[in-house]
Design brief:
mainly alpha, two-stranded antiparallel sheet
Length: about 80
């Protein structure tokens, strides 16, 4: 995994940023976020994100169902 980072000097205040410095700051953010992944790594990342999302969805459904069941059982008629 390759992570590129380029250090640049930025002024302390955002108001003093010139357009050139703003462009350098944006380039630094893009360079810091750039990661070269192989197709296999992308597939593993995709599958793990789908599994995590599925588990989150199942946990939400179970929690909502249990709250609805609890609310019904505590009703006083």
């Amino acid at each position: 995994m390759l992570i590129r980072w380029r250090m640049i000097d930025l002024p302390a205040s955002f108001e003093t940023l010139t357009s050139d410095n703003r462009d350098k700051a944006q380039d630094a953010v893009v360079d810091a976020a750039h990661v070269d992944l192989s197709q296999r790594q992308l597939l593993v990342l995709y599958i793990s994100s789908v599994v995590a999302g599925g588990l989150s969805l199942v946990a939400t459904i179970v929690a909502v169902a249990s709250f609805l069941r609890m609310r019904r059982s505590f009703r006083h008629e």
